[in-house]
Amino acid sequence: MIDDLDKLVEGLLEGTLSEGDSERFLAHLARCSTCRELVDAHKTVHRSLASLATRAIAPMSADFTDRLLGRLPAPASPGASGRAGPSLAVVLAVAGGLTVLAAIGGLIWSRSGPPTLPAASATSSPSPSPASTAVEAVTTSGITGLTDNQVKGGSPGDEPGPR
Q1: DSSP per-residue string spanning 56-93
Q2: How many angstroms separate the Cα of 5 from the Cα of each of 18, 30, 31, 62?
Q3: Which residues fall within 8 angstroms of residue 88, CB to CB, at 6 or more apart?
Q4: How many domains does the chain have?
Q5: Would the CA dihedral through 60, 61, 65, 68 be positive or negative?
Q6: Cβ atoms of residues 46 and 15 within 8 Å
Q7: Long-range own/partner contacts, residues 43-47 (CB < 8 A, 24 or more apart)
Q8: Tens digit of pLDDT for each residue in 65-118?
Q9: pLDDT tens digits along 27-38
Q10: What is residue 155's three-state secondary structure?
């Protein structure tokens, strides 16, 4: 409702209301002091904006930019090499330190050798072949319907015998 009222007030002040809407709104304003106060407030804003639009804007002086930039603090000066950032000495020191650490790590790793496995005892039996282990795992798990050839890794079409 207030949006509609604002639109009516703006339309009245800008002259965009139709003749019928304008007559009805003016008749309402004659009876309603609240709406009259709203129209008066909007008139004040309209007059202020209109006066700003008619004022001539003075052109900027030629030295305006120079004076403005002169008030800003000077930027930090770059290093002796002419660029900002860490110096060459710092970069070389860090690179040298990393090289030493890599060399020490390589020495430690190369001297440690491969991991050793415990020696097998003389009484232990030889380990079963992978195929027999797979057959044993399938038969103990309860999977049925597989042939020995499929369990050992063959495909169904590789089976010997008539088709």
Answers
A1: PPPPPPTTHHHHHHHTSPPPPPP-TTSS-S--HHHHHH
A2: 15, 15, 15, 48
A3: 81
A4: 1
A5: negative
A6: no
A7: 43/13, 46/13, 46/14
A8: 888 888 888 776 665 556 666 788 888 888 988 898 888 887 777 777 666 666
A9: 998 999 988 998
A10: coil
Distance CA 84, CA 93 (A): 18
In a domain, 144, yes or no: no
| Full domain range(s) for residue 16 | 2-54
> Do 149 and 158 meet the contact criterion of CB atoms below 8 Å apart?
yes
Residue 35 burial by CB count (10 A; 0-12/13-18/19+): exposed, middle or buried?
middle
pTM above 0.85, yes or no: no
Task: Extract the tokens encoding 124.
Answer: 């232990």
